[in-house]
């Protein structure tokens, strides 16, 4: 990580999944990626909360999670 | 790397909570809240009409019993304005909620028109006087026909917009609250929680340890365990989110839940009848051993419908099956999903290592965030109608309140459930489900076996008196 980039971090929004482009924010993206989900569940239900899929790690993440491959949303 | 890219050092740790401002989710932000508002709005309007000397009966239309097709035609033509108004009302209520949640309203309305007409056909078929002779209970008929269509024909994408299984079932459950006295909820609630806790823990640990013994990843085993123990697909998603499970693991858990839930829709009512269970006891067993709310309501309502037409061969009030199911499943199991998610998140964050570098920690706010809010609507509906009923004697309640207030709400609830049952069948395309290996299948199936047996023993031999007190 360059010094300039690192210096920017405190001023910018925190480098967490909430601001990462790999976290697929839209709920409507969930059901097509999880076959059967719409049969007895819903991407729009409360139990999903703020969990979303990470396109990079292909796993569930929450807004405050972090990883070394964070990439800020454009 | 682009200019907008920011990289944290390897092994980055979770950021401070205060530094991350997660957008607040309001009371119109998910289907649960919308089901509360829609259900309560219907009940309040029904109450307002009732209080002014009118009734919602005109809108809450349903096919009458029939023996010849000409009777069917006459019935539909005679009530055409009612059916049109009913369609418009449901379309407005569901369409508003779904549009706010980001769905395309035009796609939903086109699809919902077809769903409504198909539901009317199912409703009409189950009103045939010989329907029970051929086991044509509305839930099973809707489910079977939906499954047949979706697995033989490729349905257009826009039609999928109207197949909102969870939304319909949640609205139906809120409306169901209006037919369940709060006193009954308070009386049977602790029993439901006790029974559900025993079975949920037994099922979870069976699946979890069976999965571990079979070499499954701990997170995957936990997702499977909660899916079997709590509320099926919703629980698999909640647990998957809590432990940051892999997508393929969540997919496999969903597949297992869907397959077993559909099997149980047919098996549990059949087994209940073969074992001579009363409606309330069967409802409790279904509530303990079904995996999804929608599937369980289908099974319980099918058993209640069978009892209604069995001429006394099945003991208990027909409605007791769905009431016992709802108490057991919604009050006993569903409301704890936030606790399960938080506990698993804490265990996963502190005890289970991972190799993909994702750093997470448990957040106590998950307990409320994942709480199934429609339960609030269910309890409020129950409290409201109980309060209204408290102003009447038992005789007047049966003579006035039931036909003019409660019965129309029950009819609208049955419509919502029928939309749901059809949607289950129409969204379940078996070929599109994720392939699963034998190890997750075996782990989950061992849990199913334990769940069914323990659920049966508790419902039939330990707590039968409580459940039969619902109307058995």
Automatic annotation (TrEMBL), chain A:
Superkingdom, natural source: Bacteria
Protein name: Uncharacterized protein
Organism: Dyella solisilvae
TrEMBL record, chain B:
Transmembrane segment boundaries: 34-59, 80-102, 108-129, 167-189, 196-214, 220-243, 250-271, 335-353, 374-392, 412-430, 442-464
Localisation: Cell membrane
Keywords: Cell membrane, Membrane, Transmembrane, Transmembrane helix
A single cellular component GO annotation: plasma membrane
Membrane topology (UniProt): Multi-pass membrane protein
Domain of life: Bacteria
InterPro entries: UPF0324_pro (IPR018383)
Family: Belongs to the UPF0324 family.
PANTHER family, per the entry: INNER MEMBRANE PROTEIN YEIH-RELATED, UPF0324 MEMBRANE PROTEIN FN0533
Name of the protein described by the UniProt record: Putative sulfate exporter family transporter
């Amino acid at each position: 990580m360059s010094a300039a980039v690192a210096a920017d971090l405190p001023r910018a929004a925190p480098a967490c999944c909430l601001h990462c482009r790999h976290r697929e924010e839209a709920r409507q993206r969930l059901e097509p990626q999880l076959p059967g989900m719409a049969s007895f569940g819903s991407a729009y239900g409360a139990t999903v909360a703020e969990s979303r899929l990470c396109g990079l790690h292909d796993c569930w993440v929450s807004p405050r999670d972090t990883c070394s491959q964070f990439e800020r949303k454009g | 790397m682009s200019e907008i890219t920011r990289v944290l050092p390897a092994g980055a740790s979770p950021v401070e909570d205060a530094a991350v401002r997660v957008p607040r989710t309001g009371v119109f932000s998910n289907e649960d809240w919308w089901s509360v508002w829609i259900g309560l709005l219907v009940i309040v309007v029904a109450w307002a009409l009732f209080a002014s000397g009118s009734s919602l009966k005109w809108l809450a239309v349903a096919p009458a019993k029939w023996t010849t097709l000409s009777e069917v035609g006459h019935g539909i033509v005679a009530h055409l304005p009612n059916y049109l108004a009913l369609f418009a009302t449901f379309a407005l209520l569901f369409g508003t909620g779904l549009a706010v949640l980001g769905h395309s309203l035009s796609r939903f309305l086109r699809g919902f028109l077809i769903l409504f007409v198909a539901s009317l056909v199912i409703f009409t078929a189950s009103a045939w006087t010989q329907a029970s002779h051929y086991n044509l209970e509305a839930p099973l008929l809707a489910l079977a026909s939906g499954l047949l269509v979706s697995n033989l024909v490729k349905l257009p994408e826009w039609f999928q917009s109207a197949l909102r299984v969870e939304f319909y079932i949640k609205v139906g459950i809120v409306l169901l609250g209006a037919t369940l006295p709060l006193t009954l909820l308070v009386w049977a609630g602790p029993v439901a929680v006790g029974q559900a806790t025993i079975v949920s823990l037994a099922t979870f640990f069976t699946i979890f340890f069976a999965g571990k013994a079979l070499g499954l990843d701990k997170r995957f085993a936990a997702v499977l365990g909660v899916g079997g123990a709590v509320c099926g697909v919703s629980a698999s998603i909640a647990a998957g989110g809590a432990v940051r499970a892999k997508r393929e693991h969540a997919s496999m858990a969903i597949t297992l839940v869907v397959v077993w839930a559909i099997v149980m829709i047919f098996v549990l009512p059949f087994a209940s009848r073969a074992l001579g269970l009363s409606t309330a006891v069967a409802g409790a067993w279904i509530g303990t051993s079904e995996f999804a709310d929608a599937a369980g309501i289908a099974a319980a309502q099918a058993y209640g419908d069978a009892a209604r037409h069995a001429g006394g061969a099945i003991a208990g009030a027909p409605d007791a099956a769905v009431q016992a199911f709802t108490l057991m499943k919604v009050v006993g199991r569903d409301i704890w999903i936030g606790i399960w998610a938080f506990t698993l998140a804490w265990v996963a964050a502190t005890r289970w290592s991972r190799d993909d570098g994702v750093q997470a920690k448990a957040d106590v706010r998950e307990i409320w965030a994942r709480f199934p809010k429609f339960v609030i609507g269910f309890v409020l509906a129950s409290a409201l109608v109980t309060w209204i009923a408290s102003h009447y004697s038992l005789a007047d309640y049966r003579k006035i309140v039931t036909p003019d207030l409660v019965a129309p709400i029950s009819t609208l609830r049955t419509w919502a459930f029928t939309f749901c049952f059809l949607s289950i069948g129409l969204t379940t395309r078996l070929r599109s489900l994720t392939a699963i290996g034998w190890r997750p299948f075996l782990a989950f199936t061992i849990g199913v076996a334990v769940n069914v047996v323990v659920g049966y023993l508790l419902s039939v031999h330990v707590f039968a008196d409580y459940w039969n007190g619902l109307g058995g």
